[in-house]
Amino acid sequence: MNRYLKHWRKTGRGEAFRGHVISYADDFVILSRGYAEEALAWTKAVMTKLGLTLNEAKTTLKNARKEHFDFLGYAFGPYHHRKDGRWYLGASPSKKSVRRLTAKIDELLVRGNHDPWPQVCDRLNAMLRGWSAYFSHGTRLMAYRAVDNHVYESVRHFLRRRHKVLTRGTRRFSGAEIFGTYGVLLLRRVHLGPLPCNTPAWDPMPDDMR
Which of 6, 7, 103, 112 sits most deeply, having the most CB atoms within 10 A of its CB? Predict the structure, then answer.
């Protein structure tokens, strides 16, 4: 990758393609104004010359003003304000990143986990803190709420099975209990600060917003 970047700078591709290369390890994205196709063709030719290959499954052309693209766990592209409908270019945790986290949560809260609840809760909270520390930029509310909803459902089922509760456990293991008495971290409070006045501590996302 370093050889490619050196060749990019040496041949003045940034000026020619009106673009920038953003890279991390072997992953990179080219941001170009009006010359994306040319930049891709040049990149393929240079990679072949250097004895390298592009991952065709991950290599795509996107109009960032109209489409999203994923990079390093974030989804970049157009977003709109829910209140006034205005569009803006931004970033948020990608759906794939949310799915990876929820899968790890499910692996922790399996039926066969018989560790004491304080240990389980500590591991869960450490996982949530680490994820939210990385995804602490951009538009996060919807992703945070999606994770909070999944955590609530998963923890409720875990505790219901552990305590042999025959009902769904929504009363005994309510959101206020899980994110309060049972000590589970609510992501919305991590980077978004205190909730507005008169907002319940547990504010689940409506089904049509999941």
Answer: 7
Give how far the C-alpha of residue 105 lies from the chain's centroid of Cα atoms, to the nearest Å: 14
pTM, two decimals, is 0.84
Show the CA angle centred on residue 47, arms to residues 45 and 51, nearest 5°.
Answer: 120
**Structural domain of 150:** 94-209
Q: Of the candidates 25, 58, 90, which is a domain's last residue?
A: 90
pLDDT exceeds cutoff 70 at 204: no
* pLDDT tens-digit readout, 137-168: 999 999 999 999 999 999 999 999 999 998 89
Helix, strand, coil shares of the chain, percent, nearest 5, are 45, 15, 40
111 within 8 A of 161, measured Cβ to Cβ: yes
Residue 194: the pLDDT is 61
What is the rounded distance in angstroms from the CA atom of residue 178 to the CA atom of residue 163? 14
Report helix, strand or coil for 184.
coil
